[in-house]
Amino acid sequence: MKHLVLLGAGHAHVQVLKRYNELIRHGALPPKITLITPHPRQLYSGMVPGYVAGHYALEQCVIALEPLLAGSSIRWLQDSVAALDAANNRVTLDDGSVLDFDWLSVNTGAVQDRQRLELLMPGVREHGLFVRPIEAFGTLWPRVVALAQSQALRLAVVGGGAAGIELAMAVRHRLPGAAVTLLTGGALAANYPAAAQARVMEALKNRQITVLPDSASRFTEGEVMLASGARLVCDVPLIATGAQAPGWLQSSGLALDAQGFVAVDACLRSTSHPHVFAAGDVSSRVDRPIARSGVYAVRAGAALANNLNAALSGQALKAHQPPVHTLNLLSCGDRQAVASWGPFSAQGRWVWWLKDRIDRGFIRRYQLPDHQG
User: What is the pTM of this model?
Assistant: First the structure.
């Protein structure tokens, strides 16, 4: 029996897990499957700003893995990857154990490379609160909320992308007495159309969030030094900078793009090793550039599940065609949101309602009926 190893439990892999669990429940014989992921649940990134703002409890934002695996023959190893040898079909885990595979699918997500970021911004490892891994951030955020009950906090959010923007406004809503500064490092919401950028800037201004087009260069206790030479007093720096590829990919033998992400074709298959698939933030399409966002990762899940089934049964694979435009929804902290679709944008409470409906629907969709709350 062929052995399929799933590395990570990202947005695409939870769909693969559900698909195989349903097949098993209906008496179908799946391949031998092993899931490798260190966390017992997957925190849905789209709901993290709502969790920070206080709209959701942490338990409302997660997909528990155990119910997805219950009653199936899928083996789960609660560990992380230390090394991958794609040529010899071998994965080494953090505990030193080695696992062989016939087929491999990678959906671990991108990471915030602490070592690399420390070289760019000395002191960030000691003083910064990193957004990734989001499971760790989710457990640490309540400590910041508790600290704010005893003192007026000064927070700096580092990163001018969607994650930084949403976090800054979520923090403002949850901690109205705190001083919040957003360090964009240059352009604000650079991947969004001009109309959406203008709405975002106005939303930040209306919420009294200081926006500085400057970068952090060094972190010390209670202070962030900026590239311009200025100093920013700061009690809690939230690090929401762009993510990097996992370091273990460098020695994996897989073809990678210029940033170190797994290069895949339109079928989500490695361009160098046909028995390896990858989806989500850890991968990079060679046929067309696709933004690393949860929207695309979620959409890739069904295609990945179908192509894994096809590959294991010797059938033809089908190209995954993501849409040219996607609906992007940026929450503004106080149950308002900004929507963008191509060059068009909108804003209001109804956009928040739509985002909330979509996010809650994702959580419900990938839980088994008898385990839903």
Answer: 0.90
